[in-house]
Amino acid sequence: MTDRDSAAWWERVAEGRLEVQECSRCGTLRFPARAFCPRCRAEDWRWRAVEPVAEVDSWIVERRTTPPTTIVRVRLARAPHVVMYGNWRAEREPSPGERVGAVFEDGPKVNWVPRP
């Protein structure tokens, strides 16, 4: 759900851009978007593009939907402390530690697919 802090993030996703907030004071990357840095509490930040490559951390399969929907939790490859969620777009289940890439389709969504 979009709120005051996440609206700009969803706009970027709708444009096919993967960006996270970066603290202007300490440089900490953060997701989800929020009004202040969880590390130094600064309220100054900027948007920073990140490489849309990650590793699968875990996942769940929602079987109440038709067809079932797999949601993955990933850690960005170049910022492993940044955790994101998204839809899994492959015919098989993901594997722990699997390298994945973000794709943007079906509106403002981040989908993750296997990457060589």
Automatic annotation (TrEMBL):
<dbReference type="InterPro" id="IPR022002">
    <property type="entry name" value="ChsH2_Znr"/>
</dbReference>
<dbReference type="InterPro" id="IPR052513">
    <property type="entry name" value="Thioester_dehydratase-like"/>
</dbReference>
<feature type="domain" description="ChsH2 rubredoxin-like zinc ribbon">
    <location>
        <begin position="10"/>
        <end position="45"/>
    </location>
</feature>
<protein>
    <recommendedName>
        <fullName>ChsH2 rubredoxin-like zinc ribbon domain-containing protein</fullName>
    </recommendedName>
</protein>
<dbReference type="Pfam" id="PF12172">
    <property type="entry name" value="zf-ChsH2"/>
</dbReference>
<dbReference type="InterPro" id="IPR012340">
    <property type="entry name" value="NA-bd_OB-fold"/>
</dbReference>
